[in-house]
Amino acid sequence: MRLPLRGLPPGIWVLGFGSLFMDMSSELVHSLLPVFMTSVLGASMVTIGLIEGMAEAAAAITKVFSGALSDYLARRKLLLVLGYGLAAITKPVFPLATSAGWVFWARFVDRIGKGIRGAPRDALVADITPAALRGAAYGLRQALDSVGAFAGPLLALAGMALFDNDIRTVLWAAVLPAAVAVVLLAMGVREPEAARAQATRRAALRLADAWQLGWIFWLVVSLGAVFSLARFSEAFLLLRAQSVGLAVAYVPVVMVVMNVVYAAAAYPAGLAADRFSRRKLLLAGLAVLVLADVVLALAVKPWEVLSGAVLWGLHMALTQGLLSKLVADTAPAPLRGTAFGIFNLVSGVALLLASVIAGMLWQRVGVAATFFAGAGFATAAAIGILAYRTKPRPA
């Protein structure tokens, strides 16, 4: 299979490296945050699940408005840079936090920033990429994003060793890569002039526009929601590693392992989405997620949790770029931002529900119940895909 890297627009690389640096910053924080909240701030498992779920839901809700606004203005870069900027200014708050409330508000604003940038960025990828290469474009951006996602925990590991497990000091290292991401995107992103010239400015943003997206798009939205129910916050992977005896200083290894696999597999998976059966790829991703959940539920040693993280990363690679491609392929070009916003809103609400359920199951039933529930949702999604066949309309 030929890898068409040279055929991808330069803007995809800029967006990818912007994601790399921001994810390096964010994942450095996230790889330490669950342990920081429990061991330093004294937060409960339910509190962590609620904070993670509400933060991600806030991001998803914001994506609806930012996506629709980017369609209306036919300007995606402004919202893109604003979103990355908000995420960057929250990074100093984490090491300064003295309570779970501080963490909640920092996570909330950080995820608002993610929400503002997410739908315009995903729509911009489709705007600047030929339809035949969209899977590869989403795969490459996600692969670079995932490089940052494992570089961040690696920095966390190095910082914990260097600063004798002083989590607050290590969290300060997240500030610089976040600033680099904002500068890179502000200077390097160019919007397609042709798309802006063809865009029609509407007198107002209308809720009725959502119904122009078509039933196949709404089917993709429903599928994304079920995927989110099956895949709760990754904070529980970190806490699972700690529960089997992995030392606090080495907990970020879980995110490193997961994201190395994610980064390595995302681009090939994106190429496969351009060339092979999307239905089979989705089923393969769900099968891998079920296996990951079972491994994590039954784990009693750190290496078993790391094995589950490998499978989790492979599942993400197989499904996340593909779901983005399905949204881009089923939405009309003038409504792509709105489409990505709606998709992420529904998925985010499902993620909130999944994370709260995961926290409650962990605290009230047991660790294994959290992951067996995830496996159950993934199995239900697979049954739904097997029972229903459809094809997205051509872009």
Can you give a write-up of this model?
With 395 residues, the protein is mostly helical. The chain has a single domain (10-191, 214-387), classed as MFS general substrate transporter like domains (Growth Hormone, Chain: A), CATH 1.20.1250. 78% of the residues lie in helices and 0% in strands. It has helices at 10-40, 45-73, 77-90, 93-96, 100-128, 134-162, 167-171, 175-188, 193-198, 215-230, 235-243, 253-275, 278-298, 302-330, 336-364, 367-387. α11 runs antiparallel to α14 (302-330). Mean pLDDT is 81; it is low at 390-395.
Break the fold down into its secondary structure elements and pairings.
Blueprint: H1 10-40, H2 45-73, H3 77-90, H4 93-96, H5 100-128, H6 134-162, H7 167-171, H8 175-188, H9 193-198, H10 215-230, H11 235-243, H12 253-275, H13 278-298, H14 302-330, H15 336-364, H16 367-387
Name the CATH class: Mainly Alpha
Order of helices and strands: HHHHHHHHHHHHHHHH
Shape: globular
Rg estimate, integer Å: 20 Å
Q: Find the count of extended strands (DSSP E, 2+ residues).
A: 0
Beta-strand level of the residues, as a percent range? under 5%
- Distance from N terminus to C terminus (CA atoms, Å) equals 23 Å
Question: How many strands, which pairing sense, and closed or not: the largest β-sheet?
Answer: none
Structural class: mainly alpha
Name the poorly predicted regions: 390-395
